[in-house]
């Protein structure tokens, strides 16, 4: 005897590029959009009837058609438009989750008035996830985030006073490099999402700036302490943000032992480090507004929103 458990289906990673032309000046929007729907899906699994199923191919078409008809704009607003559409247009669909990743392009400066050349901007990616559910009333969950934001402090970081057992060899340090690739996801307060692209963009840029300023401005006794400073800065400064989850790999930089060559190599001017890519410490936590629930799933920052 078996039962169907929780399920969802959809079109994953639709790649969408939209080019707006303002005369010779072009603007590019480049996103990856994943749609996951759920609702009255027992029959398709149990008897094979597709009567309640909106094809995933249709979801892909809808993403492209909405981009053509209404534009894209902020990922939160585009995701909300799509999520609302799937749930309100099909009685068998009760819940839609739309994940979006925005791939940034910078302009290549060219002589003359033409502006249609771009260079992909690093690995930093803005992300969003919008979930709209219509069961007993409407419920929205809007998550914003970023991944691949690589930052480094060349001093102002120490790590000492930790537990030691028979396996501990790490020397204490009061001056080290602190570097990480920030993955962050923050949740907005409940309620109908704003359609206002400018509001989402301003809120995103403010969160990003607070993360960077807190990273740079915190004298760090551990990456855990830095994480908390970054997260609490965002929650303190953005009134509509209820929680933020951060995943911070500790990109270790080890002072190279150059004593065999008669060279001192201490923290200070001219110090030489080995940038190790793995293994890495992985520091993860949620920072919450007092009175809020921790709802951002842990696996979302572990590579989920991409
Ligand atoms: O900031 C750090 N936190 C740790 O928990 C840790 N553990 C370790 O070996 N180095 C570091 N650094």
TrEMBL record:
Its EC number is 1.7.3.3. 5-hydroxyisourate binds at residues 56-57, 159, 176, 224, 250. Urate binds at residues 56-57, 159, 176, 224, 250. Coiled coil: none annotated. It catalyses: urate + O2 + H2O = 5-hydroxyisourate + H2O2. InterPro entries: Uricase (IPR002042). O2 binds at residues 56, 250. Keywords: Oxidoreductase, Purine metabolism. Pathway: Purine metabolism; urate degradation; (S)-allantoin from urate: step 1/3. The active site is at residues 11, 56, 252. GO terms for molecular function: urate oxidase activity. One of its GO terms (biological process) is purine nucleobase metabolic process. Catalyzes the oxidation of uric acid to 5-hydroxyisourate, which is further processed to form (S)-allantoin. Belongs to the uricase family. This is Uricase. It comes from Streptomyces radicis.
């Amino acid at each position: 005897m078996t039962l169907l458990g929780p399920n969802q289906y959809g079109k994953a990673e639709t790649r969408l590029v939209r080019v707006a032309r303002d005369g010779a000046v072009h603007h590019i929007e480049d996103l990856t959009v994943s749609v996951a729907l759920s609702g009255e899906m027992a029959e398709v699994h149990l008897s094979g009837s597709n009567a309640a199923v909106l094809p995933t191919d249709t979801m892909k078409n809808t993403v492209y058609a909405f981009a053509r008809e209404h534009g894209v704009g902020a990922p939160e607003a585009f995701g909300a438009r799509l999520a609302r559409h799937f749930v309100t247009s099909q009685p068998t669909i009760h819940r839609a989750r739309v994940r979006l990743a925005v791939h940034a392009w910078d302009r290549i400066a060219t002589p003359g008035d033409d502006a249609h050349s771009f260079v992909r901007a690093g690995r930093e990616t803005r992300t969003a996830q919008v979930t709209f559910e219509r069961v007993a009333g409407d419920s929205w969950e809007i998550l914003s985030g970023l991944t691949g934001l690589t930052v480094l402090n060349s001093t102002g970081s120490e790590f000492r006073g930790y537990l030691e057992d028979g396996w501990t060899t790490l020397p204490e340090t009061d001056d080290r490099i602190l570097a990480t690739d920030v993955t962050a996801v923050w949740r907005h307060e409940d309620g109908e999402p704003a359609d206002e692209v400018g509001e989402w963009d301003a809120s995103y840029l403010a969160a990003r700036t607070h993360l960077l300023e807190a990273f740079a401005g915190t004298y760090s006794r551990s990456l855990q302490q830095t994480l908390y400073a970054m997260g609490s800065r965002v929650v303190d400064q953005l009134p509509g943000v209820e929680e933020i989850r951060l995943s911070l790999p500790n990109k270790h930089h080890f002072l190279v032992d150059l004593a065999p060559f008669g060279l001192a190599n201490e923290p200070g001017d001219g110090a030489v480090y080995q940038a190790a890519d793995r293994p890495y410490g992985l520091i993860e936590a949620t920072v919450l507004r007092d009175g809020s629930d921790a709802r951002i799933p842990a696996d979302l920052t572990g590579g989920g929103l991409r």
